[in-house]
């Protein structure tokens, strides 16, 4: 099964063939991969495997010979098999269960032998649960980030407000000094200077 899937894999994109085209040198590649080669090399493209020159037909790469050996049904089956999780112990068996005790994806043979008696669940259920947990954590992190941003913004506003109050208070002290204290130099020195120093130290 693995060899069949390997034979259906494009050497350029390493994915299962899409619209496979057969070159004169007997190598097959995806239509889209060959189109990218034609964009770079023009009317003559090198085979990605053997480097043999291939003349692009007048109608473009799409007019190259279709490889009918790889039917769409076979390609879809290969894609489906490639998306399955394989058992880490029995690498030819699909992992269809998840052992919650060992935190591991397992196959039916593992479930009946090494993991017998362990709590297991369908792998699809475990994947859905894990996905839900990740989404929940992402939502929580987004909320925490939004809260931190909001708090930082409020702190900045509070600091600006305090600075404005400080400037206003200094102005009031200056007005008081001018109005009531300037007439008496002794009072001026004993009241205004400490107040001015207090305002300066809080900067």
UniProtKB/TrEMBL annotation:
The protein's name: RING-type domain-containing protein
Domain B box-type: 82-123
GO terms, molecular function: zinc ion binding
Species annotation: Pomacea canaliculata
Domain of life, source organism: Eukaryota
Domain RING-type: 10-51
Alphabetically ordered keywords of this record: Metal-binding, Zinc, Zinc-finger
Alphabetical list of InterPro entries matching this protein: TRIM45/56/19-like (IPR047153), Znf-RING_euk (IPR027370), Znf_B-box (IPR000315), Znf_RING (IPR001841), Znf_RING/FYVE/PHD (IPR013083), Znf_RING_CS (IPR017907)
Pfam families xref list: zf-B_box, zf-RING_UBOX
């Amino acid at each position: 099964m693995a060899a069949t899937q390997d034979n259906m894999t494009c050497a350029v994109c390493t994915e299962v063939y899409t619209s496979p085209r057969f070159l004169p040198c007997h190598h097959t590649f995806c239509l889209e991969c060959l189109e990218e080669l034609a964009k770079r090399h023009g009317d003559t493209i090198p085979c990605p495997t053997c480097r043999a020159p291939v003349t692009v037909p007048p109608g473009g790469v799409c007019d190259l010979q279709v490889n009918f050996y790889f039917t769409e049904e076979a390609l879809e089956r290969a894609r489906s098999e490639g998306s399955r999780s394989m058992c880490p112990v029995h690498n030819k068996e699909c992992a269809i269960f998840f052992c919650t005790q060992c935190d591991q994806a397992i196959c039916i043979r593992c479930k009946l032998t090494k993991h017998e008696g362990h709590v297991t669940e369908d792998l699809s259920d475990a994947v859905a649960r894990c996905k839900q947990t990740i989404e929940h954590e992402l939502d929580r992190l987004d909320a925490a980030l939004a809260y931190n941003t909001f708090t930082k913004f409020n702190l900045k506003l509070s600091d600006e407000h305090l600075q404005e109050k400080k400037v206003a208070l200094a102005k009031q002290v200056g007005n008081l000094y001018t109005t009531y204290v300037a007439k008496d130099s002794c009072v001026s020195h004993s009241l205004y200077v400490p107040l001015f120093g207090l305002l300066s130290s809080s900067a």
